[in-house]
């Protein structure tokens, strides 16, 4: 080609009517050529062909949206960048310029062109920003790389949101300069006339899609959510996970994941929703764990808070804010709540006989005492329970008790403690439970556990402990004590909210305009239905009270229980290590949620549900429809119109029956999710997807249907595509990444949930490209994972770190004695009299 002078020749752009440019990547190639032609003064002639009709010519052109015929009438170029090289006569450039051009073009071909321009413009622009120095910053010069990059970015930049573009000032300036260049200004009208009318998604107004803006849904974590007048304000908490270990699957499904599902559901229903959680960091368990690891309590909390956050981020939990309880706000609010209760006369003082270490000069909490079990004679029984026989123990009953901090033998002494007088608050608590459990439709085990406590009669409960790591008691004579973790833990919900927003009381002291939903394992129930509500009553203030409590029983592992110390079971970090996407884990845990009884995690069931339910049901339905719509050249990804007669109310057609059945299932889904029956809600989603697969089978969707009954084929595609769009929002609470993938494939925004099934995607809407939602898991992995997480050869962190010899124990005690810190707290208020 070196003997052909582009500036004195012409090229012919051949437009393939059988394969129009239906995506931005193909259209970008055309713009690159037009800009390069204008920049080099090359005349562009146009011609149109229907390559599909030229069956005799077995050339690649039948699949290309366009190609270029050079001035010699014999040479054809199918690659846009190759045409740009030709037009700029790259071979005659000085060597340095030629090398720079080739390197830049190679980067565009091997890096930029592979990035998801249609899906993640932020990622694309950040890549280009690194190359901005290689682009010419003038309004007159258009280099080869300018032409290529401008063409590649034109669609994305033209349709990007201002908030995204504002982060890339240099690119914005360069783009504006190039747009004003004569070559680009001349090329754009030609490009618009020949591409935009075909490339529907090129239209930034989206008018041709006829999409209603009020169905779009975006979760913006950066926005502070506050209650709104006239809105349904929903406040959601999950039990604060204790900070001394890695959460296992039972912990995840028991509280945080279940709460996340309801939070996501509430948001797509259009409710004003706040989901709050954080790590519970005070108490004896933190001090003893710090003792084991030979670090300070603060260091331990920092370590495990980070681990918890990483696990929950991987599981895609949509907290508005994930905080922690060892903060100044926690100290401030807990002390304030206590003082209000104290002033109102619901706090009393009593003496308790405890073990006292004269060497440490401190009363010992139960877990700071070890000794011989009085039941089975196990030598290392704890002060609250024997790990050997399981007996519950009073620390004073231990034979030969010893202080865990220094090994010395403690003595019995009386210690004064503060008690919350629950007996006096029982009438208010009973009235609250009767009303809230009925209106909020509490889960059955939540009601049963609460009623058992009330029937037995509430008794005063100690709210102080002889520890250093906790919220200081703001009362004279209690300088060496902190609040018991179960007095201050539930107050962690308001304090974490206070770290999220200074207007936290609009959520927590707004009983008439906020509905509080709380999620937890069944062992946490009485603290949320009896102790915390009674504490709220004790303050005399108008707190937002519990509306609905959702509880879980236990998720067991294979033939036993999860055990970090024995390396048995799957913990949060292990789930990620398997390489199985978090959505699949979410699906399995939620479909196996222990709502009314204990359930079991087994690897065989986990693999089977992925392969037979996700892959064969939802994956098959979505992929079959989207591939047919995008792969059929007569549709080319453009949604057809449904035959009005086939979908009319009362019509006796497979299409109308599908719509009616889906509406019935949709109503059932909403009812179940409103009642927080999450497992049943997910089961209904699978029923809707199965009904969609049945519809495709009844219609016999294939190329024969297209050729023999086009109206029926169009209707099936219109209805099925919209059913997939509905599935995207129904799946969102359970499998958010899958929901987002479906929205991408449909080239439609993630949406709110409407009451009825409607054809929201209108005729003329252009879908995106098909993606595989799920992949098959090889059944050989079952035995591999079962062996790996069965505890036979897995050594836990605790076992690796726990001292074994007496010498090692002595060293650890010495470290812990100096490392256990007092809670970081502001100066307590003046002591109450």
TrEMBL record:
Keywords: Ligase
Enzyme class of the recorded protein, top EC level: ligase
Taxonomic superkingdom: Eukaryota
UniProt keyword Ligase, yes or no: yes
EC numbers on record: 6.1.1.10
Record carries keyword Ligase: yes
Name assigned to this protein: Methionine--tRNA ligase mes1
Encoding gene (name): MES1_1
């Amino acid at each position: 080609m070196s003997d052909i002078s582009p500036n004195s020749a012409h090229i012919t752009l051949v437009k393939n009517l059988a394969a129009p440019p239906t995506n931005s990547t193909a259209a970008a190639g055309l713009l690159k050529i037009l800009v390069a032609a204008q920049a080099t003064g090359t005349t562009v002639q146009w011609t149109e062909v229907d390559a599909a009709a030229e069956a005799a010519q077995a050339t690649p052109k039948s699949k290309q949206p366009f190609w270029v015929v050079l001035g010699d009438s014999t040479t054809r170029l199918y690659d846009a960048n190759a045409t740009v090289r030709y037009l700029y006569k790259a071979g005659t450039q000085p060597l340095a310029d030629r090398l720079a051009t080739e390197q830049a073009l190679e980067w565009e071909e091997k890096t930029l062109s592979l990035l998801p321009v249609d899906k993640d413009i932020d990622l694309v622009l950040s890549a280009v920003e690194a190359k901005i120095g290689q682009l010419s910053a003038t309004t007159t010069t258009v280099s080869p790389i300018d032409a290529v990059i401008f063409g590649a970015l034109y669609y994305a930049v033209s349709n990007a949101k201002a908030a995204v573009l504002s982060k890339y000032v240099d690119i914005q300036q360069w783009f504006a300069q190039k747009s004003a260049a004569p070559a680009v200004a001349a090329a754009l009208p030609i490009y618009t006339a020949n591409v935009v009318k075909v490339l529907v998604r090129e239209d930034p107004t989206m008018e041709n899609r006829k999409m209603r803006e009020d169905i779009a849904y975006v979760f913006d974590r950066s926005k502070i959510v506050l209650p709104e007048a006239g809105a349904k304000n929903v406040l959601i908490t999950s039990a604060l996970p204790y900070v001394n270990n890695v959460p296992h699957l039972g912990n995840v499904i028991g509280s945080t994941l279940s709460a996340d599902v309801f939070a996501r559901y509430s948001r797509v229903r259009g409710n004003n929703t706040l989901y709050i959680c954080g790590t519970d960091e005070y108490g004896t368990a933190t001090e003893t764990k710090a003792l084991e690891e030979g670090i300070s309590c603060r260091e331990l909390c920092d370590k495990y808070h980070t681990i918890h956050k990483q696990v929950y981020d991987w599981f895609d939990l949509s907290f508005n804010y994930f905080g922690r309880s060892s903060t100044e706000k926690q100290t401030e609010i807990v002390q304030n709540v206590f003082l209000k209760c104290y002033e109102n006369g619901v706090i009393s003082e009593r003496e308790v006989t405890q073990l006292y270490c004269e060497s440490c000069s401190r009363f010992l909490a139960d877990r700071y005492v070890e000794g011989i079990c009085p039941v089975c004679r196990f030598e290392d029984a704890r002060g609250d329970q024997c790990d050997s026989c399981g007996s519950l123990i009073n620390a004073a009953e231990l034979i030969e008790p010893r202080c865990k901090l220094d090994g010395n033998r403690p003595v019995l002494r009386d210690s004064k403690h503060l008690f919350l007088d629950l007996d006096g608050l029982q009438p208010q608590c009973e009235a609250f439970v009767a009303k809230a459990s009925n209106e909020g439709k509490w889960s059955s085990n939540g009601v049963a556990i609460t009623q058992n406590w009330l029937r037995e009669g509430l008794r005063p409960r100690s709210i102080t402990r002889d520890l250093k790591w906790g919220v200081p008691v703001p009362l004279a004579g209690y300088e060496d004590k902190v609040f018991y973790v179960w007095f201050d833990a539930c107050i962690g919900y308001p304090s974490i909210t206070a770290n999220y927003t200074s207007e936290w009381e609009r959520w927590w002291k707004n009983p008439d305009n906020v509905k509080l939903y709380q999620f937890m394992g069944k062992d946490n129930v009485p603290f949320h239905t009896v102790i915390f509500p009674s504490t709220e009553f004790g303050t005399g203030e108008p707190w937002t009270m519990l509306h609905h409590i959702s509880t879980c029983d236990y998720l067991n592992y294979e033939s036993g229980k999860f055990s970090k110390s024995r390396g048995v079971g799957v913990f949060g970090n292990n789930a990620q290590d398997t390489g199985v996407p978090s959505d699949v884990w979410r699906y399995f845990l939620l479909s196996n949620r222990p709502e009314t009884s204990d359930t079991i995690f087994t690897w065989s069931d986990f693999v089977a549900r992925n392969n037979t339910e996700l892959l064969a049901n939802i994956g098959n339905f979505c992929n079959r429809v989207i591939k047919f719509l995008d792969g059929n050249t007569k549709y080319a990804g453009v949604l057809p119109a449904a035959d009005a007669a086939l979908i009319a109310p009362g019509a006796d057609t497979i299409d109308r029956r599908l719509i009616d059945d889906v509406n019935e299932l949709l109503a059932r889904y909403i009812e179940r999710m409103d009642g927080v029956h999450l497992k049943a809600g997910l089961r209904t989603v699978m029923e809707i997807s199965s009904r969609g697969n049945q519809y495709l089978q009844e219609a016999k969707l294939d190329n024969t249907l297209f050729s023999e009954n086009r109206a029926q084929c169009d209707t099936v595609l219109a209805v099925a595509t919209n059913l997939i769009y509905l599935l995207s929002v129904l799946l969102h609470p359970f499998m958010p990444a899958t929901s987002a993938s479906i929205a991408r494939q449909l080239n439609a925004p993630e949406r709110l949930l409407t009451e009825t099934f409607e054809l929201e995607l209108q005729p003329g809407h252009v879908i995106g490209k098909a993606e595989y939602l799920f992949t098959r898991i090889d059944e050989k992995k079952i035995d591999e994972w079962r062996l790996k997480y069965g505890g036979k050869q897995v050594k836990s962190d605790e076992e690796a770190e726990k001292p074994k010899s007496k010498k090692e124990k002595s060293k650890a005690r010495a470290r812990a004695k100096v490392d256990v810190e007092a809670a970081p707290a502001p100066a307590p208020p003046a002591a109450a009299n």
